[in-house]
């Protein structure tokens, strides 16, 4: 289980079981590493970087360097959609002061494997070790397999967010339909006229259509709008 509580959860915060699954993958990778080595996942979004899973606190500190400098093996692995492996940071001149700051944390070797969301690289599965040349072919193969598993988890998170957005849209549509039905009865008009009245009132009062519709339904019925069919408990 990751040890640091400061990790970013901007990517999967609404899906706790996926957060835990990513943590578990990182923990399994870390157990396959040499002594005192660590693993983590660095997410890249909107020109920023943040650690979303870490087997040790130093991984989060490296993520802060990457986010601050916008440079490092992790950054380049996403930019190039390719593995970036550094056998020994002591002889590295790329990435501004990243090598010096990582060395100060006791890191000598780094291995960053890109993680895709669909066809787009969005993160890296990263390894850090205090020894040079710490990651052999067997470890790199483990990382490649683990990165694919994390990709499936990120895809599941993406689908879950899309499903939640669809659920909210359908729920809003159901509430609006209920309000339109009330207005049709109260104003003795057709559906189009009732909807146009609701839309005009929404614009006039600068209130979202679904919010105004929910208020109408609640005021008339004395209870919150009836949930859409897929939200009804027990269905």
UniProtKB/TrEMBL annotation:
It holds the Pfam family GAF_2. PROSITE patterns: ANTAR. Keywords: Kinase, Transcription, Transcription regulation, Transferase. Gene3D superfamilies: 3.30.450.40, Winged helix-like DNA-binding domain superfamily/Winged helix DNA-binding domain. Residues 156-217 form the ANTAR domain. The keyword Cell inner membrane does not apply. This is GAF domain-containing protein. GO terms for molecular function: kinase activity; RNA binding.
């Amino acid at each position: 289980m990751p040890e640091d509580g400061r990790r970013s959860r901007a990517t999967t915060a609404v899906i706790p079981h996926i957060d835990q699954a990513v943590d578990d993958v990182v923990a399994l990778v870390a157990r396959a590493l040499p002594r005192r080595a660590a693993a983590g996942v660095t997410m890249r979004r909107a020109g920023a970087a943040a650690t979303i899973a870490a087997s040790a606190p130093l991984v989060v500190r490296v993520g802060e360097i990457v986010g601050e400098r916008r440079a490092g093996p992790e950054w380049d692995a996403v930019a190039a959609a390719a593995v970036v492996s550094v056998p020994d940071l002591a002889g590295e001149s790329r990435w501004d002061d990243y090598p010096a700051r990582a060395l100060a944390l006791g890191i000598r070797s780094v291995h960053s494997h890109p993680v895709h969301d669909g066809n787009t690289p969005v993160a890296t599965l990263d390894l850090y070790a205090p020894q040079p040349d710490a990651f052999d072919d067997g470890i790199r193969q483990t990382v490649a397999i683990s990165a694919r598993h994390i990709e499936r988890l990120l895809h599941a998170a993406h689908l879950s967010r899309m499903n939640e957005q669809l659920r909210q849209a359908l729920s809003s549509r159901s509430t609006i339909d209920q309000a339109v039905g009330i207005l049709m009865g109260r104003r003795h008009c057709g559906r189009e006229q009732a909807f146009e009245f609701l839309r005009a009132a929404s614009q006039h009062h600068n209130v979202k259509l679904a919010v105004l519709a929910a208020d109408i339904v609640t005021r008339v019925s004395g209870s919150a709008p009836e949930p859409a069919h897929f939200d009804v408990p027990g269905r």
